[in-house]
Design brief:
The complex is a heterotrimer. Chain A is an alpha/beta fold. Helices cover 47% and strands 15% of the residues of chain A. In chain A, the strands form two sheets. Chain A has an eight-stranded mixed β-sheet with strand order 6-7-8-3-9-10-12-11, with helices on both faces. In chain A, strands 2-1-4-5 form a four-stranded antiparallel β-sheet. Chain A is globular, with a radius of gyration of 26 Å. In chain B, α1 packs across α4, α6 packs antiparallel against α16 and α8 crosses α14. Chain B is globular, with a radius of gyration of 26 Å. By secondary structure, chain C is mainly alpha-helical. In chain C, strands 1-3-2 form a three-stranded antiparallel β-sheet. The longest helix of chain C is centred in the middle third of the chain and has 37 residues. The chains are: A alpha/beta, B mainly alpha, C mainly alpha. At the B-C interface, α1, α7, α8, α16 and α17 of B face α5, α6, α9, α10 and α11 of C.
Amino acid sequence: MPEDGPPLADAGNVSEPPADKDDSILSIKDLRTYFYTYDGVVKALDGVTFKIRRGETTGLVGETGCGKSVTAFSVTRLISDPPGRVMDGKIVFDGANLLWRLEGEAKYITKPNTPRVKVRRYFRRIKAADNRMTAIRGRRIAMIFQEPSQAMNPVFSISNQLSEVLLLHRGIKIIDEMLAATPDAPGVPAAIDAVVNAANRRQREELVDAGRHLGDVVGSQGAGTEVYHLARNEGAGSDDLRPKIEKALKRLHLRTTQRRYLGYRRHLMELQNQLYEVYLSEMREESPKNGERREIQRRQLFERLKHFYYGLWGIRGQVQKPLKTETFWRSVRLLEGVSIANPAQVARGYPHELSGGMLQRVMIAMALSSDPDVLIADEPTTALDVTIQAQILELMRDLKHRVGTSILLITHDLAVIAEVADRVCVMYAGQIVEQGPVEDVFRQPLHPYAQGLLASIPRFDQPDKDLQSIPGSVPNLITPPQGCRFHPRCPHAMPICKVTRPPVTVEGPGHTVACYLYTGPVAAD
Amino acid sequence: MRMWIFIIRRVILLIPVIVGVMTITFALVSALPVDQQLIAHFGQPGPHDLWLYNPTLQPGQGGCPPAPNTHTCSNSFYYNAIDQLGLNQPIPVQWGVYIYHSLTFQWGTVDNHSTAADVFPAIKGLPVTTVLSWYLPYTLELAALSLFLILLIAIPLGNLSAVSRNRPVDQAARVLSFSGFAMPSFLLASLLLMGFVIVIGTASHPAWVSTTPWCPSGEITFSEFYGSWPSALCFGSSSIYPTWMGSGIHTTPTGFPTIDALVAGQYWLSVDTVIRMILPALAIAFGTIAVLLRFVRNSMLEVMNLDFVRTARAEGIPSKTVVSRHAGRNSLNVTITVLGLTFASFIGGFPVIEYVFHLNGIGRMLAYSIQQSQGTVDYGLIFGTTLLFTFIIVIANIIVDVLYAYLDPRVRLG
Amino acid sequence: MIGLGIILAIVLFAVYAATQPTSWNVMTQYCATNQTNGSAPQCSLGFPTVCTYPVGSPPPGPNCYQTPTNNPSDIAPTWNSHTLSGGPLPLGALTINPDGNYFFSTYQGLLRGADWSLIISVSVVAAGALIGLLVGAISGFMGGTVDESIMRIVDIFLSIPQILFVIIFVVVVVTVHPTLFGLGAVPSRMLILIVGFVIIWWPFYARVVRGQVLVVREQKYVEAAQASGASRGRIILRHIIPNSVYPVFIQLSLDVGTIPLFLGSLVYLGFSTIFPSPYFPEWGSVTALAVTNLQGFLVTCQVAPGCVIPWWQILFPGLALFMYAISVNFLSDGLRDALDPRLRR
């Protein structure tokens, strides 16, 4: 299991062993993100370097405004441009370079006297990079955000938004299942009997199993969920239940137009996936295939034109109905997965009708619908109260075990990190000052900033102790301090701290720090 | 279910607004001299019957019977009329009578000596409601077409200029929007018409006419092209609207020109009517497009910065879908609201445009009813048109509210 | 840059026009000298028409010409002052009375019209904004029944098209009271016009201000001010008013450009009672007259091919009106950026 995997680097080695490289799913090196404002260039990220290993939870802590969220958004290219732009660095995700063809491009644009034509070309490249990122965002790297009530679209129902994401990432699988569904398979009557019996006997677990079983027999997850919810709503001893179930299963008999429509949708999705594969192979620098990409895009356009016929008003509703029902019940099932009590009702509702904790569950369900490799959680619990916080964290941990997702957990709450994370990176003013396994960092923080941060936590077991705080405040990132950025606030500041940036040194297994107080071997990365 | 309650509540809230508008018009009408009020309500008598409305005339004047009628000329018509309008009653009663008349569509009679009656002799002495009911359908069709054009142009252009912010497209849209604010509608319409005349001046050549499918016979001159009803040159006596304007007989089944043409089986006639509407509809739409364009752009920019758009992008939804579906749907609410707010000024543009293009809608009726060049001002028509325009605006506002509630689930609760 | 140039040009012209004697002054002076012999009938009307007087009598003012030709509107822009008694016509001439063969200089019309346009639009907007600000603020602060009833009244006014309300108001009031408060024909007519506009104009401002006040009232900084013990008056003056008026400023500056367009539309519709005289020097009115005149030409030109369309008649007044409105728009856009601290980056 990932969380008890031993740290791979040992103190003696100057460079980290190659095994560690293979293990990392996302590695960020020397990332620089600048914001161009009227007051000047805000160097929000200035050389951030860290790695996230497979199946591991990495925490990112620091004060407000130190660039935690900017890191997350830089990785997924969600920084709004203007004013922000990823200037330099390397982000390698699963072998793919997310900043492919962008190294240095951004620099030229902001340089004065760059020829207009060149600037336009660079803009095009940045835009193309945004398009490429759709191959990664959501399906490989998912995100959940701080303010769940703001992060959901207020005008669409929950099921609508979940279905959209489901179709986007799981569309082919869903359509295949729908096309292969067998509503008159030999086991169906028996399965229906089982559901009805379970409903009559008010056996909740049995009902769940029976519903699932029926779904398996007919080959449709959505139908299984629907039947289960039907049975639950009908209550015991209802005569209507059986006809209702049969009616629900009827939608699995697809008409010819519906089949053809599904076929088109599937075809389009396949083309889209091919395009994403091309993007990924480009980013892995396995021979960029411009021609192939254009060919796929051309075919896509053609397909869309053909597909337009099915989008015509009037026939649209009839043709799309089975797909809509299926995705609706699948999204209900997703909501069940994040332990929402009345998922069908929630799915029909709108974001403003739900509480923050519920919405955060929905967000998690949405983010995990595609089984992503990395989940970036940007302060997921900050806006929630403590009990809900605990539930959400529990949920995330549970999902990590089930799906095997790596998590980048951004928070300023050190307790959350201690609870959930395996490794922790401490950030200060756009730089990582210390990183290492949670136990090591928390037990023995090395960097003065990390020490100050940990000392400022109120301790339950030492009520008499005065709370400590770090003097001063986060520096203005337009004109950051020379040398170590922490030196104006540092109790141990030395003359050299004011001149050059301290090197990153290895101080323990997987534990690195950037401070002149420590003289371990310099880390390779 | 909630939606129905919402609609019913809106309709109930509408009643005080309509009564309020009627109160304002009542305040103005009742300020008029009594004889003018009588003219507005009962129409102008002939030159020899002026005494009907004016009891102060001395015997021998204005058709008043001469002596031996020694006292002031008075007659039962005048006093009956005064009674009927409640003009001898206290103000609240007059108000009640006025509201009753307005709500029951007794909006008075067209003045025989007004400019409007001079221009359209067929409407002389007819009830204002009847006259307006002839002219309303064309205005409604024109409004529908220009609303369609507004939505067709403003929303995509606004989205485009928001997406390509500060790029050439955006700058062009900004210039368009500013000129829409600054362009007087009568000037724009006249320029469009002038351009059209220059085009058709060369295009009315027989060679062009023979290739014009919707006008099989004869050439079209610009003065014939415009005018809401197809000219006899185009459709000859087979046209379904040749004569009602002149004879005062309303012969069409619905009054809506395009629908009537379809009912009568004249496909080209219907197309012709729509073609004639395009230029005026553009002229009307221009100002509203300008307003809407700015609002759509700004609200789009605002929405694009909201968290849920970032979420949608983070979920891997392609940026085109994010713009059109997620952001577009949210900024549509703003669009609808602004459309509702500007609807009054949009409707206010109709008189000018219909007057420029010689379109027989209620706006043109209003334009003639306020002129004094060939007769008097027509109070009945002016106040009737005002009430009608107000009704249209109020109903449009309800539709906007309902649409808004439909589009934004957060509103439906209230 | 171009926009700046346009604004500069308009401002310069406005300054120049303001230094010129107004049509009011010109005509007062003229009437003072000519009234005795009764040769100026328009003086008895109490107001300067730009140019209407009987055939044969001397032209009543510096901006009025008697035509030497059969088709006066064919006079293109000219600097030649010899063919005409009244001086050069830098922007051409505008026929005002084709039968009587009189016309006036477009340049003079625009020059004399600048002040009237500004007076009307600024006074309408200022009075409307003042009322709207007061009513909107009261409505927003008081809330409850007061707010509800004020907003219903606002709704009523907002559902009447402005142009229609001005028409019915002016028609009725002019019929009932040709003069007001013992004023002359001109001032009272102008007052009626302005009052008509103000009555239909204030509800917009009231609505904007009320909406803004409602938003501002709920802001955290107002709560913070309350919590820190600021008095009610201080909160209103220091926090709510400054934060609610700026959208009104923008709307207001936009409307200064809109009102001449409305006036032009009314004149164009043939609503002759709106101004004290039929050919009143006001930009919208001059433009509308030019456009009306042009339509007659279009018909003539279709009948007689080869006739010259008098482009100058529509171009110069139209351009003046358009530029005036668009520069006001640019100014308000700049004003928004300057006033709103949130946009000042």
